[in-house]
Amino acid sequence: MNQSKAKYSARSMTAFSRIQTNSEYGRFSWEVRSVNQRYLEINPRLPDAFRHLENDLRQTIKQQIHRGKLDVSLSFESSTQQTDLQVNNDILQPLTEAISQVQQGLPEATQVNPLEILKWPGILLENDASQQEKMDAKILQKLNDCLKQLTDHRDREGQALAVLIMERSQSIHNQLKQLEPALPEVLKEQTDKLKIRIHELSEQLDENRFNQEVAILAQKMDVAEEIDRLYTHLKEVEHILTKTENHAPIGRRLDFLMQELNREANTLGSKAADQRISQASVELKVLIEQMREQVQNIE
Do the Cβ atoms of 35 and 68 come closer than 8 Å? Predict the structure, then answer.
């Protein structure tokens, strides 16, 4: 398989995106930072005027991203100089005149507290609901654009990570292919050494005892099962990277396989009765660890 042109389903958890927009409502920008995390963690930072969008924000992100720690921030600068609180002059003016008349008729009346005036029904103008909805829709649309930019970045990096994993997988294949032909030779060498030791301990070689020791030695040195399982796990890694539905999370499955690969490599090393097997075990564990480091960043 040409790994440089292959399409993998891997998606990285590390990315950054930022989108700034000038609209009739003002200038606003979304910024999203994503790093690796076992689960999906969303940390929104919204201006007070847009905190009501937090639930929509979370639902929008969950539809597109499955794992990772996301810091999501929105900044907004209104195009008008108006404050959020606006006084309804149509009510304020007659209310002020009425208060003035009361104070003229009752000289002992105290000054009116402006905060009490603000509590008067209708004295404060409410924001235009339809205008707010349009502005919210515009802002959420740009959030989608920002997330699209983020996922494109995550996809590109995921492809690069998958290539690195496949390269390490192929290197493990090569190590095993080089080791397999040497196993019968290793067993013969160890058998010859055992025969020499038995001869040194006893002038008369007990063939039965020798055959028993050879059987035990062969069983201890038998790494065929470990090699078979290593091949099986590597095949599953390739299957996950190439056959999984696009954008489906695969990081945890790959992480599990890294643990299984490492377990087999350790068992292979524990059975090593020859430097070639021992060296192969070390090389395998180095390659598996390199794969595991890449897998940690895959969604």
Answer: yes
Position 264: which residue type? E
Contact 250, 230 (CB under 8 A): no
* Torsion over CA: 270, 274, 277, 282 (sign): positive
For Cα atoms 71, 247, 159, give the angle at the middle one, nearest 5 degrees. 90
pLDDT tens profile 262-297 = 999 998 888 776 788 888 899 999 999 999 999 999
The answer, as to whether pTM is greater than 0.70, is yes
Q: CB atoms < 10 A from the CB of 113, how many?
A: 9
Sequence-distant (≥ 6) Cβ neighbours of residue 213 within 8 angstroms? 194, 198
> Which two tokens mark 20?
């700034």
Phi (first) and psi of residue 126, to 5 degrees? -85, 150
Q: Each residue of 167-187: b (16+ CB within 10 Å) or e?
A: ebbebbeebbeebeeebeebb
